[in-house]
Amino acid sequence: MRLSVADIRALRVFRSVVEHGGFTGAQLALAMSQSTISFQINALEERLGFSLCQRGRRGFELTDRGSAVYEYSHSLTSALSAFEMQLGELRSKATGVLRVGIVDATVTDSNLGLDDVIHQVIKKASEVDLRITIGSPEQLIADTAKGGIDFAISPRIKLLPGYSQTEFHHERNSLYCSERHPLFSRKLVTKADVEASQMVVRPYANKSELQHFPNAHVGAYASNIEAQAMYILSGHFVGYLPDHMTVTFRQNDRLKALLVPEAQIRSPFVIIAPKHKKASLSERIFVQELRKRVGNAEKTAGKGQPTEAKKPLPKIRGV
């Protein structure tokens, strides 16, 4: 069969349904009604001549052929996106869709300044459809692998074959407890006190948060920073958080940093991208603006302004 524009549109709807685990999530992501999504899926099934999925009281489930169509569609959507960008480059103009994955809890990092980066990218590449995805490092890697995003901005993780990790920024992390935790009111906190407490850590950091506390008791794992903060705020755990996101909590006496500066660590941030994929013009513009923003923050630090990147701290060794 020859694909029409309507077929490609329906395929995109189908991919969204699969990636969101059913119609409900796709409705929110696509801003479409369930009836419109059903119409698109039905039209695609009619064109293909077979059923793509089962939907009903038992929920959403792909058929074997539906799974195959979804897998085959990766190459089509990637090719269409690449084609749009290549046409733009022939015109020396960034066009098409740029999909960037960013780890959660970075909006308060003024040294990273992603809001400024996005402002400049939209200003310089107004024809680019910039789409931002927020998620845990594990989610971002999965999205990169299946072609859902072009590259990811994330803390360094265990080295992956076939992917490059280009370091460009560091984020300072301190060990925190909440006002509900017994250590909050202690005037003197020791390493032994921390190791006797329950600790929450991030799996993707490969236990590097335990570098100062090798005998700590890990009581919980959090796949992202906000979940880790919730564990800590509960009063049952101590754990590491980026200093930039804890300012309000510290000002309101809800969080307290422990063993500063000896227990502080810094987390290297990297750009994760497939090695085989050539960066498009829009990707290069985004990365250039990102490096420029971080570089300006470092220059400001060199002139005496406070910044998290100014003091050398032990790195999180997650590789």
Characterize this entry briefly.
With 319 residues, this protein is of the alpha/beta class.
Sequence-ordered SSE layout with sheet pairings:
Layout: H1 5-19, H2 23-30, H3 34-48, E1 53-54, E2 61-62, H4 64-90, E3 96-103, H5 114-124, E4 128-135, H6 137-145, E5 151-155, E6 163-178, H7 191-195, E7 198-201, E8 217-221, H8 225-233, E9 238-242, H9 247-251, E10 255-258, E11 265-274, H10 281-302
Helix pairs in contact: 1-2, 1-3, 5-10
What does the model show?
With 319 residues, the protein is α/β, with parallel strands linked by helices. Helices cover 39% and strands 22% of the residues. The chain has ten helices and eleven strands. It has helices at 5-19, 23-30, 34-48, 64-90, 114-124, 137-145, 191-195, 225-233, 247-251, 281-302; strands at 53-54, 61-62, 96-103, 128-135, 151-155, 163-178, 198-201, 217-221, 238-242, 255-258, 265-274. Strands 3, 4, 5, 6, 7, 8, 9, 10 and 11 form a nine-stranded mixed beta sheet that branches. A two-stranded antiparallel ribbon has the order 1-2. 34% of the residues are buried.
